[in-house]
Design brief:
heterodimer, A: alpha/beta, 16% strand, elongated, B: 12 helices, binds guanosine-5'-triphosphate, binds potassium ion, binds magnesium ion
Chain lengths: 276, 297
Amino acid sequence: NSFKTIDEDLFDELEEILITSDVGVETTMKLLDGIRKKVKEEKVNDPKAVIELLKQEVLKLMSENAQLLSAEYPQIIVVIGVNGVGKTTSVGKIANRYKKAGKKVLIAAADTFRAAAIEQLEVWSNRVGVDIIKHQEGADPAAIIYDAISAAKSRKTDVIICDTAGRLHNKKNLMEELKKIFRIIDREYPEAHREVYLVLDATTGQNAIVQAKVFKEAADITGIVLTKLDGTAKGGIVIAIKSELNIPVRLVGVGEKIDDLQDFDPVDFANALFSE
Amino acid sequence: MAFEGLANKLQETLKKLRGSGKLNEKDVKEAMREVKMALLEADVNFKVVKDFVSRVTERAVGHEVMESLTPGQQVIKIVNDELTQLMGSTQSKIIFSPKPPTIIMMTGLQGAGKTTTCGKLALNLKKQGKKPLLVACDIYRPAAIKQLHVVAGQVEADVFSLGDKTKPVDICKAAIEHASKSGNDVLIIDTAGRLHINEELMDELLEIKNNIRPTEIMLVVDSMTGQDAVNVAESFNQKLGLDGIILTKLDGDTRGGAALSIKAVTGKPIKYAGMGEKMSDLEPFHPDRMASRILGM
Ligand SMILES: Nc1nc2c(ncn2[C@@H]2O[C@H](COP(=O)(O)OP(=O)(O)OP(=O)(O)O)[C@@H](O)[C@H]2O)c(=O)[nH]1
Ligand SMILES: Nc1nc2c(ncn2[C@@H]2O[C@H](COP(=O)(O)OP(=O)(O)OP(=O)(O)O)[C@@H](O)[C@H]2O)c(=O)[nH]1
Ligand SMILES: [K+]
Ligand SMILES: [Mg+2]
Ligand SMILES: [Mg+2]
């Protein structure tokens, strides 16, 4: 950034950075209006300081109610999202985190729909070295959750992590199926601490906002897992989601291997947004 | 959705302005701002939008429009025309090799829908009287081979696999040999999902290409992809020289602007659209319908 003065060209460049990171038009305008105001109020005249102000703004927003992985037990984590975003992989990685922390972990194969989804999760259960509860392909997902809860109670499990089938949010029947899973948990495991992670693919554009809105109606989402940040996409859509829906990012996926899961770091995130 | 009914909005804006006299350049600029917003909201790439808007503006400030009694409709028509032209106006089909077997290689980012689309395409080709062989070259993803077997079972197509210890290029060579014996006239190669910046895995695809010369190299793209779609498509195209694009997950409610961006940067045709998780959910791609969808019209 070689700007010498604060002018519209500078703001155009900031707009380009935000838009090309998938922040979206609305949130981009909102952020930049705020910065324009600040520049006036604080009589900023160094262009570098303007970028710094914007970075701080993003940082502030994304740091609000940031939380680490919960250490309350017993705990049940349900992982949800649209097709192919990285749910099953994230279940494996999260299981590994708790396992490494010395916790007793159980994973539930509640995606009974996708071809070889159960086998895929089985590979992860072996990799991590944790138990898996599974039925046949086509079985009722809620019945698997029910069995997982029973097993967890009798085996004194600390954490159940439930994989679910990928579903597009505009499919009403599939969203109803999800609600049924939560009703089972309400009824059978009210004593457990509950986390619901919405998995979002960092390469996703504006549709992620609708995804978050609609999934939020079906489930009490407690955090986002932002996957595939090891690519060139910046995942800026989570800024819009935080701004509009106040859902914080909890974890980020940075690869396909077991350890490629990190706690969300707002500083890294904001820096990456304005790098290059 | 924020831009439901862009057409109405544009009409409205332009009608209001027209009431106060003739349509001038400034009015058109104002309308183009709306178009720009709509395209960005639909995930069309920033640079593609810029080019597009300046091209449309140039046409819109021309004589016929300014003097027209219905400038609103004229501008909308220009936007639609230009968009359709950018998307490609005719439907593109799979090209078969004059000397069988035809080899179709599926490539793309992780989770885009490659394996599922292999099955869908096999069903589609079977209906055209072909005898496809699905080739399992994803040796990395957990249970990828099993997934391909399940998918193939659903459409009753043949599968060729050598497990996950053989190099993909060698699996492909063996598959071609197998096909000549078993009478499979089309090979559909499922490859592992990979990032366009992963040199090693991109080289793996290039090695396959150089050794077996696929008839069609397809990039499978999730229609929900955002601004990064151009980087991905450009990288795959530069490395491999793509023959076509398959868009997936269009049964969702995304505007799918990535489709336009990819077409614009690669010039390669979008051949099919994935419309669901079932094997029959594959449709030929219609560029004109996509143009309207992107604009929310
Ligand atoms: N590069 C990268 N790839 C990832 C990451 N997380 C998951 N993947 C890959 O993305 C693809 C899809 O991951 P899955 O875990 O199967 O996704 P899913 O959401 O369970 O998919 P469905 O169950 O089909 O809806 C796989 O190839 C994963 O290896 C990540 O953080 N980075
Ligand atoms: N709704 C919908 N889902 C689709 C479509 N195409 C694929 N999917 C789903 O998207 C997810 C990922 O599909 P896969 O075929 O496993 O994707 P892939 O590209 O082979 O993934 P990797 O091998 O991990 O890179 C699965 O849940 C599929 O059922 C589509 O057109 N519509
Ligand atoms: K995806
Ligand atoms: Mg899964
Ligand atoms: Mg696959």
